[in-house]
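Hi team,

Filling in the usual template for the complex we talked about on Friday. All components are listed, including any nucleic acid strands or ligand strings, so the model treats them as one assembly.

SUBMITTER: L.P.
PURPOSE: interface mapping
COMPONENTS: two
RESIDUES: 299
SEQUENCES:
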Amino acid sequence: MKIIYHCFGGTHSSVTAAATHLGLLPRERKPHPRELLSLPFFDTREGNDHGDITLMGVDDMGNEVYFTGQRGKPEFLENIVNGLAQNFNLPANSYRLINVMPKVNISMRIGGFLSRRFRWIKTGRPLVTLGTVWAYPEIIKLVREILAEESSG
Amino acid sequence: MKQVIFYCDTGFPYSILAAAIRTGRLPADRYPRKSELENILRPYGMGKGDARIYNFENSSGIKCLALWTDRQGGMVRRMINSFLGLYQIKNYTLVGLEYKKNPLMSAGIWLSGMPPTRDAGLNMVYRGVKDVYGRLVETACRETLP
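RESULT (copied from the run log):
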C-alpha cells in the first residue's frame, strides 16, 4: 500500500503526519520544536516541488509512506491519481490519499506562508513550527486512525 | 502501446479537442462544424477544469487521455509523472497544449451559459477554436504511436 499524505505545500502538516506514521516523531506526547525542525523536508520544500509525491519511508507493515503538496487543490490530486489508476489498471486498494489540510491551524497557515512564499524564514519558521506543535494532537489523531485501519487490514 | 495524455492548463478543454481529433471524433482534414464542436464539448463542459481524466478510444484501438485545469500546470505535471513513477510506469507521453483562451472565448463561454445568448456565445467560442484548430490537429496527430 502506498499512503500519500497531502497538504497545501507538502512541507509542514503532511511531512509531520508522514513522520508520525513512521515513528519519527513521538506518538504519546507533543514533539519539541527542535524535533520538528530536525525532520527531513520540514519547512524546506519550494513551490516547484508542489505535486511531487515524495517517499518519506516504509512503515512496520510494509506500507510506503509519501507526502506531497497540492496548493489547496486536493480535488486535482484526487482526480489525477484516481483517473490514472483507473486508466493504467492500478488496483484502487494499492494507494491511499489522506488530506491533512483540515488539521492545519491559522498559525501554520500564516507561518508557512511567510516562510515559504515570502522567504521570511526568521519570522515564519518559528510560527509554523509552534503551530504544528499546537496542531499535533489533531494530526496524530488522524494518523492513529490510518494506522488502526491499516493494521486491521 | 504508449499512452498519450493530453494536458492543457489554460482553462479551456483544448486537451479534449486534441483527444477527439486523435481518435477521429473531430475531423483532422478540415475545420469542424459548429455542431460537431458543440457535441464534443457539451459532455465535458467548458469550465476551467478540475484535472479529471477523460478516456478517449476509437474502434481501431487508438486510446488517449485528456485533462485540463486553469493554471497549476507545473504541479499537475509533477503529480502525473510522480504518481506513475511510483508504479514504474514509463509507457506514456504527456503532451502539453499551450494554446491560450482569448478574451473572445472567455466572453463566449460566459454568454453560452445563458439561454438567450447561448448561440452567440458558442459562435465566439467556435471562432476562438478555429484560430488554433490547425495547430491543434498538428499536435494531436504528431504524437505517433510506437
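MY TAKE: Chain A touches chain B through 28 residues (CB under 8 Å). The CA atoms of residues 10 and 69 of chain A lie 4 Å apart.

Thanks, L.
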